[in-house]
Amino acid sequence: MTPLTDPQKQLLFDYAIGLTSEQQTAQAQELISANPQASELHAKLKAALSPLDSIAPEPCPDELAEGTIWRFKQAARAGQTRLEKLLAAEQGRKARKRGFWPELARRLATAALFIIVGSVLITGFRAGSSYAHQRYWQHKCATQLGGIFQGMSNYRADNGDRMPAVATAANSPWWKLGYQGPENHSNTRRMWLLVKNDYVDADKFVCPGRKDRNTLQISPATTKMLNDFPDRSFVTYSLRITCSKSPVAMRGRKVVIADLNPIFESENLPDSFSGRFSVEVDDEMLKRNSRNHGGRGQNVLFCNGSVAFVRQRHVGVSLDDIFTLQNTRAYTGIEVPSCETDAFLAP
Question: Which residues span the domain enclosing 314?
Fold first, then answer.
């Protein structure tokens, strides 16, 4: 029998810890039912992760997740034997206090088990732990985009099935994120309506996988006074630019939001609203993925509420590049799509 490939093992590992999409879940279940090796590996993974069944589900702090991964990465440099000793020590250690600390020890032991099983059964500890870390942030980002979609759905339910929208004049500069004047210049103003009217928390518009992420902390009263996000550091997603030739109906598979467009990062934009916007796109820029996930790909939210992590920028049946306009290399910040199939996501 042909051995399982590394991608198949990674799929089974993701499935065991609940990080697969609906499509990936179906693939994993089909693989398990058709392949005895996959079935055996899945059974071992579930048995190894069984200590989690006795722990009530609750959010794991980001610092604990990152710290645990770092700790065992350091141990991995000393070899597999060191990892096994560390696991035994974590599992055998008696807690000094009742309450939180015994629970923490159990979580650390289980985390160690995750990593050791992944390192033995997949592609080696270093690759496995890095992969798991990446998948963690991808999953958390996808969950966040799902929350934005829920806010959009709630807004529609309260506003006659209409999407958040503001009146925009022709040739409005969509790049002026943070502009607070009366003119609806910024492409993010319509999404600010979700924050302003309590449909989505402001921090949901910052991808959790981004290393330089910044959290917006302002009072509800100040939020009500603003016309847009305070500045572009508080929005690390790119939104579809809509116009009469490229509307968005909330059905099907049109792209609505994705991780931040790599072409229009801060260094390519003017420092002030009075500055001149001019970006020339070269061949190298056309190959970049979003920085939010280290250039490995981007999460994409579709108008039917589904979210997919894609490793290239061309999405849909037409394989449209979601980060550029068709047949356009020079941008001055006022461009809009020329047809319905030309999705263009900008800051």
Answer: 136-346
